[in-house]
Amino acid sequence: MPATGCSCATSDPTHGGMCPISRRAYKENIQYLSAADVRRLHDDLMSLRLATYQYKAVPSERHLGLIIEDIEPSAAVDPGRDMADLYGYTSMAVAALQTQAREIKLLKKEVASLRRALHRRDGTGRSTGSGSTR
After folding, report:
1. Rounded to whole angstroms, what are the CA distances from 51 to 9, 103, 117?
2. Average pLDDT, the chain
3. Which of 19, 45, 69, 126 could lock onto 15 through a cystine, CB 3.0 to 4.6 A?
4. Global pTM?
5. Mean predicted confidence (pLDDT) in 96-108
6. C-alpha distances in angstroms, 65 versus 3, 32, 36, 85, 107?
7. Which domain holds residue 79?
8. pLDDT at residue 52, rounded to an integer
C-alpha cells in the first residue's frame, strides 16, 4: 500500500468503473489538439524533471518518477488525488513522439536536399577540394 494510505484498483470508482474508456460514444465536447498544442505538450514533457525517491512509509523501496510540486500544473498531474495522471502523462509522451517524428521527417528532407546539391556540385555527392569551407 502506498504511503498515502490509498490502494490501487482495477477501475476508477469515481467514474463508475468506466475510466479510462476512450470510445467516442462515452465522450462529449471533443476538441483535437492543434500542432501548437502538441508542440507545447512536447516542450512540457521534455522539461519534466525525473527523480528517484523513497516513500517515507517504505524506505527500503526506491522509485523513479515525478514530484508533483516540480511540474504542476500539468496534464501529467491529478491534483485532486495528489497523484500522477498516467493517462495524461502517456498522452504527453505521444505528443512528444509526434513532434519528434515531424522534426525527423523535415531533417531527412533537408539531408536529401543537401545530398542532391552536393551531387550536382561534383557529380558524386562527395565534397571536392581540400576540405575548406566557402
Report:
1. 25, 28, 46
2. 83
3. 19
4. 0.67
5. 96
6. 15, 28, 27, 12, 32
7. 34-119
8. 96
Q: Is 15 part of a structural domain of the chain?
A: no
Cα-flanking dihedrals φ and ψ of residue 64, to 5°?
-115, 135
Taking the C-alpha atoms of residue 83 and residue 16, their distance in angstroms, rounded to an integer, is 19
**3-state class of 67 per DSSP?**
coil
Domain count, the chain: 1
Whether 42 maps to a domain, the answer reads: yes
> Burial, 56: exposed, middle or buried (Cβ in 10 Å; 0-12, 13-18, 19+)?
exposed
What's the rounded Cα separation, in Å, for the pair 93 and 50?
Answer: 14
Please tell me what DSSP assigns to residue 92: H
Q: How many C-beta neighbours within 10 Å does residue 33 have?
A: 13
pLDDT score of 32 more than 80: yes
Domain assignment of residue 23, yes or no: no
Q: Is residue 80 part of a domain?
A: yes
Longest distance between any two alpha carbons in the chain, whole Å: 72
Interval 6-32 mean pLDDT: 71
pLDDT over 70 (residue 62): yes
**pLDDT band, residue 1 (cuts 50/70/90):** very low
Instruction: Name which of 78, 54, 59 is nearest 68 in CA terms.
Output: 78
